[in-house]
């Protein structure tokens, strides 16, 4: 959240953030902005309410798309009082086509709050702005600085990209901790005399010059102070952590039937993604897969060791593929048979105490908590009951 002064030192080495460099970034950027800034309707006003409306509209919306909506909206609701007293349907009608309608509802709710709690004046402190519906840290900083000249950070996606490249930040900005560090860093750069212009200039530079895939460094006013441009690798920033490599996993799953019932087991309840959920017994076999014969042997041994159930592992009956995080899982389901007199006499007393097992009908299994792949096996089984002569 933007603060009037950084609560912790910026994450950039202070040697790289010298007063001279801070001044240089500010002055180069503002010179460029004064020369190149687009003439936008919300830049022709100093009315905090109009600036607030523009910031709500510009969330998730391109500038060119927002302009006609902004103009119509302010014509219809020229003051915060007019918006606060307008029926919601009327506000939504004017917003129609802009999308993300929660923004319109929040803007109207914010107008109400401003009228009721702030005497109709848009608050000038970041802390108070943050209490308004739909106002997050970026918007609070933008409104405080642009509408009221308060020194505040306003860090949106464009600014994250520019800062990450200027300082070659090797941190993933998607988490809240790094996000706060970026706000502190931005705060250290905001010039005290023109905070609103500086924030708009950073956003404009990110939108028009420091583009995500093709930054135009030769045309950038910050090229001589930009570390990524000097290294020749701006598109390496913002830093993205390497995604874990996909691991192929192969599992053998037992579909063991006795009479009308099937063997299912419950996962231990302490840890793991599927804790306490029920499943058809299965075991992971070596990465890359084994031959069907080895997979069958492994499964038979597992059932005997784990549950004390001697089964005949017969043909492969189905194959289920699914993915869990970076694990690509191929589950080969084997039909297994066990005689009426074989296996455990007391079905619900497991050999391994912490691994409950049950012999249940398909209807009973359907009533248990099952993970998605297990539900798929169950559905296949329901469809194929006749396969087993049931
Ligand atoms: S020099 Fe290039 S990478 Fe650096 S801020 Fe400018 S456009 Fe972005």
Please give a handful of descriptors for the protein shown.
390 residues; alpha+beta; Endonuclease III, domain 1; Nucleoside Triphosphate Pyrophosphohydrolase; 2 domains; 7-stranded mixed β-sheet; 7 strands; 42% helix; 13% strand; elongated; disordered N terminus; binds iron/sulfur cluster
Nutshell version of this structure?
The protein has 390 residues and is α+β, with helices and mostly antiparallel strands. The protein has 15 helices and 7 strands. A hairpin with a 2-residue loop joins strand 5 and strand 6 (327-337).
Describe this structure in words.
With 390 residues, this protein is an alpha+beta fold. The protein folds into two domains: 14-236, Hypothetical protein, domain 2 (Endonuclease III, domain 1, Orthogonal Bundle); 247-388, Alpha-Beta Complex (Nucleoside Triphosphate Pyrophosphohydrolase), CATH 3.90.79.10. The chain contains 15 helices and seven strands. Strands 1, 2, 3, 4, 5, 6 and 7 form a seven-stranded mixed sheet that branches. Helix 2 runs antiparallel to helix 8, helix 8 crosses helix 11 (195-208) and helix 9 crosses helix 11 (195-208). It is elongated and about 85 Å long. Residues 1-9 and 343-350 have low confidence and may be disordered. It binds iron/sulfur cluster. Iron/sulfur cluster binds at residues 162, 165-166, 209-210, 215-217, 220, 222-223, 226, 228-229, 234.
Mean pLDDT, all residues: 87
What is the level-2 CATH architecture name of the largest domain? Orthogonal Bundle
Quick one: biggest sheet?
A: 7 strands, mixed
CATH-wise, what's the superfamily of the largest domain? Hypothetical protein, domain 2
Estimate what percentage of residues fall within beta strands. 5-15%
CATH topology of the largest domain: Endonuclease III, domain 1
Secondary structure: helix percent: 40-55%
Low-confidence segments, given as residue ranges, are 1-9, 343-350
The count of helical stretches stands at: 15
End-to-end gap: 63 Å
The CATH class designation of the largest domain is: Mainly Alpha
Main structural class: alpha+beta
């Amino acid at each position: 959240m933007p603060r009037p002064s950084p609560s912790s030192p910026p994450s950039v080495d202070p040697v790289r953030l010298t007063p001279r460099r801070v001044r240089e970034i500010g002055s180069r950027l503002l010179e460029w902005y004064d020369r190149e800034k687009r003439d936008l309707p919300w830049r022709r006003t100093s009315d905090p309410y109009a600036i607030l409306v523009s910031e709500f509209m510009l969330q998730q919306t391109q500038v060119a798309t927002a302009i006609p909506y902004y103009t119509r909206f302010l014509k219809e609701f020229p003051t915060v009082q007019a918006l606060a007293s307008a029926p919601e349907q009327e506000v939504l009608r004017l917003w129609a086509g802009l999308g993300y309608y929660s923004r319109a509802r929040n803007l109207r709710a914010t107008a109400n709050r401003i009228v009721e709690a702030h005497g109709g004046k848009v608050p000038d402190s970041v802390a108070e702005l943050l209490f308004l519906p739909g106002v997050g840290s970026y918007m609070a900083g933008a409104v405080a600085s642009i509408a009221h000249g308060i020194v505040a950070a306003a860090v949106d996606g464009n600014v994250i990209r520019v800062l990450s490249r200027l300082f070659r930040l090797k941190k993933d900005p998607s988490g809240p901790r790094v996000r706060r560090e970026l706000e502190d860093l931005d705060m250290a750069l905001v010039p005290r005399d023109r905070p609103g212009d500086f924030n708009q200039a950073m956003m404009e530079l990110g939108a028009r010059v420091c583009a995500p895939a093709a930054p135009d460094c030769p045309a950038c006013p910050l090229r001589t102070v930009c570390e990524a441009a000097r290294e020749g690798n701006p598109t390496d920033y913002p830093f993205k952590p390497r995604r874990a490599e996909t691991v192929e996993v192969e599992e053998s799953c037992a579909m063991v039937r006795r009479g009308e019932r099937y063997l299912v087991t419950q996962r231990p309840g302490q840890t793991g993604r599927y804790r306490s959920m029920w499943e058809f017994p299965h075991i992971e076999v070596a990465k890359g897969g084994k031959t069907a014969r080895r997979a069958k042997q492994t499964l038979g041994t597992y059932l005997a060791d784990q549950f004390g159930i001697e089964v005949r592992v017969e043909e492969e009956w189905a194959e289920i593929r699914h993915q869990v995080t970076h694990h690509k899982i191929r589950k080969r389901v084997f039909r297994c048979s066990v005689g009426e007199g074989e296996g455990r006499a007391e079905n619900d007393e497991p050999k391994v105490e912490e691994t409950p097992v049950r012999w249940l009908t398909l209807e009973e299994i359907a009533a248990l908590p099952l993970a998605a792949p297990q539900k798929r096996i169950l559905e296949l089984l329901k469809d194929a009951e006749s396969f087993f002569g049931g």
